[in-house]
Amino acid sequence: MRVITSEIPGVLIVEPEVFGDERGFFYESYNERAFIEQAGIAYEQHFAITSYAAPVVHAEADYRLPIRPGEHLTVEVRLERLGVSSMTMAFRVLGPEGEERATGRETHVTVDPGRFVSIPIPAELRAALAPIAESETPQTVR
Question: Are residues 40 and 93 in the same domain?
């Protein structure tokens, strides 16, 4: 797994390793410890220094055209809604010719990591998201 720093402050791109054999293609699954450590943070310290977590509470996706291993895709990300304690991100996956392959949404709720109860979006996260929320142009990841 590779972790790539994006142009968006605080946003990392996770690129899982893809494997293939006579059965087809598959990819490594998400490993929280490996992800956090590859992002340059000691796993045990992550939860000690984190004042909030933002788990996914709703996710949906609609696939319009096939997405094949090895294709170069573009993912457009838009902050669709920024609430008091939750945010919804909208995604659009485009093929090499710009054709829409898939769309989706994820809603995250900010929680206290110790008590796992909803809390208002912390000021530093809200400040980082503000330029994205105010922009009409989606953020693009290639």
Answer: no
Number of structural domains in the chain: 2
Which pTM does this prediction carry?
0.65
Query: What is the extent of the structural domain holding 97?
Result: 51-142
Which one of 9, 27, 49 terminates a domain? 49
- What span, in angstroms and rounded, lies between the C-alpha atoms of 74 and 63? 15
Low-confidence ranges of the chain (pLDDT < 70): 1, 9-12, 14, 16, 19-49, 138-142
User: Of 50, 73, 68, 66, which Cα lies nearest the Cα of 125?
Assistant: 50
Question: CB within 8 A of 91, min separation 6: which ones?
Answer: 61, 75, 76, 77, 78, 102, 103, 104, 105, 106
